[in-house]
Amino acid sequence: MPGQRDRQQGQSEPEEGASRRAPRIAPLSQRANAGPCPYVKILYDAARYVEMTDNRPAVANVGYTGEIEGVTAGCSYRGNDPITVQMDLLFNLGRGPQAPSDQRTYRYWVAVTVRNEAVLAKEYFDLPVNFEGARTASVTQQQTIVIPRRDTEVSGSNFEILVGFDVTPDMAAFNRDGSRFRVNAGAAPVVQPPAQ
């Protein structure tokens, strides 16, 4: 039969060990969000945290440093549900020569805004860090943000979520100017002995 011949040509000899079937993967839910997720961004002026003695920018004056390296986020909402945003934030932190101890609690915030308009809510969080004798540490924190919606017509694209360190005006100006010390700013430089 013509159809039978085609099927036989499409079949190949089973390879050794191929007698086991591949595991079946459950299909993904076909039910999508009601709309796009909110934009999630790190505010440039508050992306870095640099403590300096007497606000003088010099490596010898650096206490604690920090940088928000990245944010990943996903959201879900359907029908009249609020928008639930799951975020993972990566912090790289440092301890300079003026840091008095191995432990420091950094403070950061997460703000929900109407996109390009007004802040709707802002919440502060503590980030305790133990450097355990090291000069640097990396910490990941997870946050869940819930944004109520007036009705089903309100989409996640109407909102923006901003993240930043709780910085002083001097720290914000330092960041805005593009100045920076890396998180390992307090590491002792390698000194080469003089040539003889």
Q: Could you explain the architecture of this structure?
A:
The protein has 196 residues and is mostly beta strands. The N and C termini lie far apart (92 Å). It has helices at residues 2-10, 169-176; strands at 39-42, 48-52, 62-76, 83-95, 103-114, 119-130, 136-147, 159-165. The longest helix has 9 residues, at 2-10. The strands form two sheets. A four-stranded mixed β-sheet has the order 1-8-5-6, with no helix packed on it. A hairpin with a 6-residue loop joins β3 and β4. It has a domain at 39-171: Immunoglobulin-like (Sandwich). The model is unreliable at 1-15 and 183-192 (pLDDT under 50). It is 9% helix and 41% strand.
Helix content range: under 10%
| CATH architecture type of the domain at 39-171 | Sandwich
Per DSSP E runs of 2 or more residues, the count of β-strands stands at: 8
Query: Strand count, sense and closure of the main sheet?
Result: 4 strands, mixed
What oligomerization state is this entry in?
A: single chain
Identify the CATH class of the domain at 39-171. Mainly Beta
CATH superfamily of the domain at 39-171: C2 domain
Instruction: Note the beta-strand portion.
Output: 35-45%
Q: How would you describe the shape? A: globular
Kindly summarize this structure in a few lines.
With 196 residues, the protein is mainly beta.
For this entry, give a set of tags.
196 residues; four-stranded mixed beta sheet; four-stranded antiparallel beta sheet; 8 strands
